[in-house]
Amino acid sequence: MFVVATAGHVDHGKSTLVRALTGMEPDRWAEERRRGMTIDLGFAWTTLPSGGTVAFVDVPGHERFVPNMLAGVGPVPAALIVVAADEGWMPQSAEHLAALDALGVAYGLLAVTRADLADPGPATARARAEIAATSLGAVPAVAVSGLTGAGLPELRAALDRLAAQLPAPVVDDPVRLWVDRSFTVRGSGTVVTGTLGGGRLRVGDALELAGADEPVRVRGLHCLGEARPEAAAVARVAVNLRGTPRDRLGRGDALLTPDRFHHTDLVDVRLAGDPAGDLPATLTLHVGSAAVPVRVRPLGPDTVRLRLARPLPLLVGDRALLRDPGRHHVNGGVRVLDVAPPPLGRRGAAAARSQVLAELNGRPDLAGELRRRRLVRAGALIRMGVPVPTGRDSPAWAVPVAGDWLADPAHWRQLGERLTEEVARHAREHPLEPGMPVDALRQRLALPDRVLVEALVRPPLRIHAGRVGAASANALPEPVALAVSRVRAEYGDRPFRAPEADRLVDFGLGPREIGAAVRAGALLRLADNVVLLPDALDDAVRVLAGLPQPFTLSAARQALDTTRRVAVPLLELLDRRGATRRLPDDARIVVT
Ligand SMILES: Nc1nc2c(ncn2[C@@H]2O[C@H](COP(=O)(O)OP(=O)(O)OP(=O)(O)O)[C@@H](O)[C@H]2O)c(=O)[nH]1
Ligand SMILES: [Mg+2]
């Protein structure tokens, strides 16, 4: 199927022509038929000589209804421009053409209608000249009469040729169906219609709807009045939604493949039209079938930041249009450069941003995004419309550094260096701690995710017990090593005597130092403030094994030449380690 939108001044014969081509009535409303004027979008379709189908989105020409016209042409890539032979080029001919141009519509046809009333020559010449200067370029022209039917076969043939020129739709693309109508069908519930420009819809699909917490389900699908299990782009579709109240959505909403779009209310765009400095502070942004008020902040000569009154699912590269509703003026098209732009807080940030934007062209550019964002999730980029290659063909810098995080290679290297510095600094400032806590590092490096810290740790650094330190974390900090060596010097020949609390203080062994020494295996802690040199355990077993078995606590104390303060916890430790066993009468034996 191929979809084409009409365009042209009021009363120039658009609806009459669609009616003559399709036999269907595009003016759906009684009021439209009473007034002989299109107010809202109309839909009709027919089979072309080739056997293909063309669906028309018929738009109103009256200047009051330009927003409706824009909702109709927004999602449609081809236009049938209608000019009346007897009236020629008129204001809304120009405004509609400006809109098509702003949206970058590249495929079209000119139909000069009411050719039974006047010579179509002058109107044709003028219209072709106007159209040639736009994104449509040179278009074929056909003189027709909706009244007599003259020229209709030629027009049908021209529509067939136009259809053959259109680029093939990408049916693997995610779905972004801009809703142009919503209504209720008795017994079925809410139905929305739209032009499916890419992707595929199936009955049963779950789709995302901005502002809804839950996905909406496709209960039924119709294409051109026929029920279908599935519809692939390009197609006019009517989607019956399960359990979605009619007032939950309408024109300007979009049904989306879940998790594939970023809803944004802030975009940086390039202007093709009025210069940034000439734009009023508030305008209306038209994109797809949506029309949203925006605040305009000029950044460069042809770049602006737009703050949208409500978020839209926009992608890098999207074309949209700015219009001043008060002045009936299409200010021009815009091309979306960034759907997640950085805040402009600092002084000079706007100027710097304008330089960045000057380099962008709206074509998704993964390497550039990584350079600018430095660290970003692949999923986030995909939702912005920047494809991320996967599999064997992807370049090394497009492979996630952790989870689905992608990093600019230079930035990642720098982060690795900073991590090493931070760990070294932490070791200097907290010599007794066994490394820097991962979360403290995460904050220090302003990283959004702990897995990034983990991925940055390289030998000789390592993560142990939630901290990042040197792999040789067993090495003692210098002051503690000194204290331990003094213990050894003083107690080496009486290994079962533990220094009293005040001696520990003399040595400089407070609770933290003792903790560090114990973790490093330089001291053995039997109880609070009761420490021995680590070889004491093996020595004790040897001494105790020399005693008549079983032996009492008092015999052990004497043999070890120590006090109860040491003997009691020492024997308990040996019990726990299975070196000794305590018998029911409290005597012990050495387990051999
Ligand atoms: N003689 C003659 N009259 C025509 C022709 N086409 C349209 N008309 C008449 O022109 C008037 C306007 O036609 P429409 O088809 O409603 O025009 P339109 O472009 O759809 O108008 P809007 O939707 O309001 O913008 C009607 O009275 C039609 O009967 C034609 O080819 N020949
Ligand atoms: Mg009409």
Oligomeric composition of the shown chains: single chain
Bound molecules: guanosine-5'-triphosphate, magnesium ion
Instruction: Kindly report the spatial arrangement of strands forming the biggest sheet.
Output: 2-3-1-4-5-6
> Can you give the mean pLDDT?
91
Proportion in helices: 25-40%
Based on secondary structure, the structural category is alpha+beta
Shape: elongated
Task: Report on the architecture of this protein.
- With 592 residues, this protein is α+β, with helices and mostly antiparallel strands.
- Helix content is 31%, strand content 29%.
- It is built from 18 helices and 30 strands.
- Strands 2-3-1-4-5-6 form a 6-stranded mixed beta sheet, with helices on both faces. A 6-stranded antiparallel beta barrel has the order 7-8-14-11-10-15. The chain has a 6-stranded antiparallel barrel with strand order 16-19-18-17-20-21.
- β27 (524-527) and β28 form a beta hairpin.
- It starts with a strand and ends with a strand.
- The relative contact order is 0.06.
- The model has no long low-confidence stretch (mean pLDDT 91).
- The chain binds guanosine-5'-triphosphate and magnesium ion.
Gist?
This protein is of the alpha+beta class and 592 residues long. The protein contains 18 helices and 30 strands.
Task: Give the arrangement of secondary structure elements.
Blueprint: E1 2-7, H1 14-22, H2 30-35, E2 42-47, E3 53-58, H3 66-73, E4 78-84, H4 91-102, E5 107-113, H5 120-132, E6 141-143, H6 152-165, E7 176-185, E8 189-196, E9 200-202, E10 206-209, E11 216-223, E12 226-228, E13 230-232, E14 235-242, E15 254-256, E16 263-273, E17 282-287, E18 290-300, E19 303-313, E20 319-324, E21 329-338, H7 349-358, H8 366-373, E22 375-377, H9 378-384, E23 405-407, H10 409-429, E24 436-437, H11 438-444, H12 450-456, E25 461-464, E26 467-470, H13 478-491, H14 501-507, H15 511-519, E27 524-527, E28 530-532, H16 536-545, H17 553-560, H18 564-577, E29 580-582, E30 588-590
Parallel strand pairs: 1-3, 1-4, 4-5, 5-6
Antiparallel strand pairs: 2-3, 7-8, 7-15, 8-14, 9-13, 10-11, 10-15, 11-12, 11-14, 16-19, 16-21, 17-18, 17-20, 18-19, 20-21, 22-23, 24-26, 25-26, 27-28, 29-30
Helix pairs in contact: 11-12, 13-15, 17-18
Residues 14-15, 38, 58 line the site of magnesium ion.
